[in-house]
């Protein structure tokens, strides 16, 4: 499981910034797997906890608020259109990355650990 995480305000722009970092890391992992002759499982899930970011990914309509991150959006949308990424909405409280990025109470930590595939 690949995980990219950026801690910022949870706005559409922050989601795209995090997704852009994830896209770059994903590209590098894909290159490595290709060199190792491993089979790549596609599409890879991109879990997003922002409905606005998910809508922008699916519709690819530029907005005056997203012009400054337009190139990042286009790269991610291209990965989505070609079937490499499959973006889906995931509620913040059930986001698997929360196990690795948040201080959680013990019961909640155990619950989320079951959703993450760690070696």
In N-to-C order, the SSE pattern is HEHHEHH
Main sheet makeup? 2 strands, parallel
Distance between the termini: 9 Å
Question: How many E-type strands?
Answer: 2
**Largest sheet: spatial strand order:** 1-2
Q: Can you describe this structure?
A:
It is a single chain. The chain has about 120 residues and is mostly helical. It has one domain. Helix content is about 50%, strand content about 10%. It contains five helices and two strands; from the N terminus they run αβααβαα. Strands 1-2 form a two-stranded parallel sheet. Helix 1 (about 10-35) packs across helix 3. The protein is globular, with a radius of gyration of 15 Å. The protein starts with 11 loop residues before the first helix and ends in a 6-residue tail after the last helix. The mean pLDDT is about 75.
List keywords for this structure.
48% helix, single chain, 119 residues, mainly alpha, 8% strand, 2 strands, 5 helices
Task: Provide the fold topology.
Layout: H1 12-35, E1 44-48, H2 51-59, H3 70-81, E2 85-89, H4 98-101, H5 106-113
Parallel strand pairs: 1-2
Brief summary:
The chain has helices at residues 12-35, 51-59, 70-81, 98-101, 106-113, and strands at 44-48, 85-89. With 119 residues, the chain is mainly α.
């Amino acid at each position: 499981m690949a995980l990219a995480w950026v801690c910022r305000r949870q706005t559409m722009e922050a989601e795209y910034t995090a997704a852009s970092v994830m896209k770059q890391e994903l590209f590098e992992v894909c290159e490595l797997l290709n060199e190792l002759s491993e089979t790549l499982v596609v599409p890879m899930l991109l879990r997003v906890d922002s409905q606005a970011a998910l809508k922008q990914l699916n519709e690819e309509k530029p907005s005056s608020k997203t012009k400054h991150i337009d190139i990042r959006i286009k790269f991610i949308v291209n990965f989505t259109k070609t079937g490499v990424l499959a973006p889906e909405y995931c509620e913040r409280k059930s986001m698997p990355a929360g196990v690795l990025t948040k201080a959680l109470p013990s019961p909640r930590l155990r619950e989320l650990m079951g959703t993450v595939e760690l070696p």
